[in-house]
Amino acid sequence: MFVPHTPEEIQEMLRAIGVEKIEDLFADIPEKFRHPKQIDLPPPMTEMEVAEELQHLAEANDNVRDHLLCFLGAGAYYHYIPSVIDHILRRGEFYTAYTPYQPEISQGTLHAIFEFQSMVAALTGMEVANASLYDGATAVAEAVNMAYHVFRGKRPKSVLSPFIHPQYLATVRTYYEHSDREVVVPDLPVEASPEALIEFIDDRTSLVMVAYPDFFGRLYDLQAVADAAHEKGALFGVVANPLALALFKAPGEYGADMVVAEGQPLGIPLSFGGPYLGIFTTRKKLVHKMAGRLIGESVDSRGQRVYVMTLSAREQHIRRARATSNICTNNALMALAATVYMALLGKEGLREVALLNYHKAHYAAQRLSQIQGFELAFPDVPFFNEFVLKTPSSVKDINDFLLDHDILGGYDLSQDFPQLDRHMLLAVTEMISRDDIEFLAEVLEEWVA
Amino acid sequence: MSEKKIREPLLIELSIPGRRGVRFPEPDVPQAQLPEHLLREDLPLPEVSEVDVIRHFTRLSQYNHAVDTGFYPLGSCTMKYNPKINEDMARLPGFAYIHPLQPEETVQGALALMYHLQKYLAEIVGMPGVSLQPAAGAHGEFTGILIMRAYHRDQGEHQRNKVLVPDSAHGTNPASSAMSGMRVVEIPSDERGNIDLVALKKECDETLAGLMITNPNTLGLFEEHIEEVVNAVHEAGGLVYGDGANLNAFLGIARFGDMGFDIVHLNLHKTFSTPHGGGGPGSGPVAVAEHLKDFLPGPIVDIVEEGDPPTYGFVWPKKSIGRVKAFYGHFGVMVRALTYILMMGQEGLRKVAEMAVLNANYLRVMLQDTYHIPYNRLCKHEFVAEGRWPDAPDIKALDISKRLMDFGFHPPTNYFPLIVKEALMIEPTETESKATLDAFIAAMKQIAREARENPEVLKTAPHNTPFGRVDEVKAARELILTWHDWSTVDSRRSIVDSR
Ligand SMILES: Cc1ncc(COP(=O)(O)O)c(C=O)c1O
After folding, report:
1. How much is the pTM?
2. Do A313 and A387 belong to one domain?
C-alpha cells in the first residue's frame, strides 16, 4: 500500500547490506524481546473497508451541522468556515511539510507564519506573536511560566482570575502543582468585577491574568487591573476570545504585557476539542523570554526578501534544560487556518462576523429572559456572544428536554461553580438564525408549561 | 529594507481599501446597543479578495518542499507518506462538527474511536494504560515526568527529583524534565553509541526519579544493554521513561512494555502517518505500566456500561495528575492515526518497521565509504553520518544540506544529535522506493566529490531553488517579527503596485 518494495528489490538491498534476511536486521534486539506474541489488532482493512468503518463511527455521533442546533460554547464555538480555508489546508505542500528548519525550501510556511504573527499582533494590539502553541489552556500555562522567568523566580506568584476557563485553570494547576510557581486563583463571588483581583497583587506577584470576555461571556474595562498590576511591578496578561477582539478594545491598548487566546474561533472546526490553536503574544522587550517559535524577516543570497526562524536560542533544541519552554511541534497548520481566515475576512469581514455574534446573542438573551422563570444572571454587564441564564430548575433536566428536540443546550455551570446551580452558559454565533432562537424559546416555554 | 526583491508580496501589500474576500448574511435580528466605551477604533487587517487569497497561498505553498513533493529524509522526524484517506476521515461531519462538551450519549462514535485507539496503542507498546490527551511529543514527555513525580510522592518519596537524560537525547527531553522542576543530569554515551552504564549506575541513588531514554536512540541504534539499564534504574527505585518518537524502528517487532519501560510517549505525527502540517499539530499519547495507570491525566475513555455496543464515557483515573490541556487531546489527529492502524494491522505495522530499517541500512552501507559514520553498526530506522572531511576543510554539514536541495531532496537533520560532529541524521522511512534511495545516494556521492573539486558550488548552494541561502544573522539582528515592524510599509506598497 504505502510500502513500495518488490521482493526482488528487498533481496537486492539485503545483499548490498550483507545480510541474508530481514530478521537479521533486528539481531541487535535481544531475542527475548523480539516478535511478541500476537498483538491484538484487527486484521488489516483496505481503504474501502476502513472508510466504511470510520463512516460508521462518525454516524454514531450527532453533529451540530446535520442533527443538533448548537447553543453550546464554553471555549469551543461553532462558526462558519469559508470553503477557501480547507482548500488551502489540503494542499499537500503545506500539510505534509515539517517544521521549516530549512528556509530555502520552506518559504511557503515561513511567509504564512509571518503573516499569522502580523495579523495576530494587529488583532491583540501587541508587538509580537509566536508561531503558535497547542491551545488556549497551554498558552495560559506558558504565560505563567514566562512571567516567572521574567523575574528570574523572584516573584513566584501568579494571580489568575477565577473566571478564566475552568479547564485552563485546571491545566495550570497540573503544570505547576509541586513546583515553586505559586498559582493563586482567588475565590471570588461570581458577581465580582476584575478589580476584585487587585487586593491579591503584591510585590511577589509576577503576573495578573484576566479573561476577556470571561468564562461567563462578560466584558469589563480592564484598565484599572492593568494599572494596579503595573503599579506593583507585575505583568498584566489577558486570555482573549480572538473574534471578540474584532469589535472590542485590543488588550494592547490598555497595557497588556501578554495576550493569549484559544484561536479556534478563527476558522478551525470543532473536531471534538482539537486540534485547536494556542495564540501567544507579548511585547518586544520580553520576546527573549517567550516560548515557542518565532519567524523574522531577512534576505537571501540573491537579495530577495525571505522569512526564517529566529531567536532560536530560547528553544529546547539549542538551550535544552534551560530553554524557555519544552515546546517543539506546535499547531502550525491550525495557525495557517487562522491566517487564511483572517486574510479572507479581513478588516470588514471579521468585524461583520463579530457584530453578527453580538446582535444575535443579545437578541437571544432578551428573548429567553422573557420566558417565565428564566432571567439573565448578569443583566448589567456587557457581553459578546455568550451569556449566563438563570434557569428555574436543574440545567441537566432542561438540556435533556432540549436534546429531545435536537437542541444542544448551554453549558451547565454547576459543574465548575457549585454556587451556580441552575445557571446555563449559552453561546450564540452567526450560525444561529432568529428562527432558531425562536425555536429554542418555544421549546423552553413548552418545558415550563 | 526596501531594497529587498519581493517574490511574493505580503497580504498587507496586496490590500486595497474596500476589497472583500467573503460576505456574511445581513443580521436577521434587531441591532443591540454596543458598549461604546469598550469598542476598538481600528482593526488594521488586510483587505483582499477571494482570488487574491487563493493565489497568494497557492503560490506560497509552491515554495515548500513537502513529503508530497519529494524525498524528505529528515532524521528523527519520520517523514513518511501521509495517506490521503486519513484526511477524508478526519473531515467526516460526524467528527469535524462535534462539540467537545456534547452529552456523551451523542458522541458514542467519537468515544468508541478514542477507546479503540487507546487499546490498540496499548497493545502496540505492550503497556496497559494510555492517555491520548498530550498535544505533541514534548507535551507527552512533560506529562510523563509529572506522572513520575506523582508516583514517587504517592510512595512517600518526595526526595526523588533527579531525571537522567543521555547526552544523545532530543532537546525536548531535558527541557520537559526541567519544566516540571526536576533536576536534569546528563549521562554520556559510550563508544558504541549506547548509554554509558558505569556513568548511569553512579547516578542511581535515592534521589533518582527516573531515566528518560530514547530507544532506538537518536543515533538510530538499539540500546544493546537495555535490560541492564532498566534493571539498574528499577533497583534504585527509579522509573524508566521511553521517548517513543522512534517507534517506527520496531513497530510490531518489539514492545516497550516487554523491555520493562514504565512510561512512554508516542508521536502519532511520526510513527502513525499523521501529517506534520508544517510544524504541527501532532499528538503525543502517553502509555504506562500497570502501577502507573491511576496517575494518567484525565479524562480518559472507558466502557461505562457493557452491552452491544457497549456505552463509552469519560472517566478520571483515581490519582490522576489532572488535565494537561483543554478537552481531550487532538481528536482530529487521532482519527487519522486510527485509520492508519486499521489499514495496517499487525502484519502491516511490522512491515513498516522492516522496510524502514531496510531502507536505513541500505543507505548507511551505500554511503559508508563516502561519509564517515562514527557509530557504524546495524542501525534501526535512521543513522547519523558526519558532514565533514579532513581533505575538504571548509565544508560543513550545512553546505551539504543546502546542496542537496539542488537535487530536489530535503536535507537530513543537521547538528543533532549533539554527540556527532557536523551531524547529518538520515531517516528514509519505509515509504521510499529503492529508486529514490539510489538517486539520493548518487546525489550524496556527487556532493562528496564536489566538496573536494569545487567546494564553491556547495558553499553557495542552493542554486536551483526559488530562494537562495538565507541570512539568519540579519533576521536575529533586525528582529522584524511582524509587518508593523517596518518603518517603510508605504514605500513597499508602491513596489507591489508597480508589479
Ligand atoms: C527523539 C524525539 N523526541 C521528542 C521529540 C519531540 O516531539 P514533538 O516535536 O512532537 O514535541 C522529537 C521530535 O521533534 C524527537 O525527534
Report:
1. 0.97
2. no
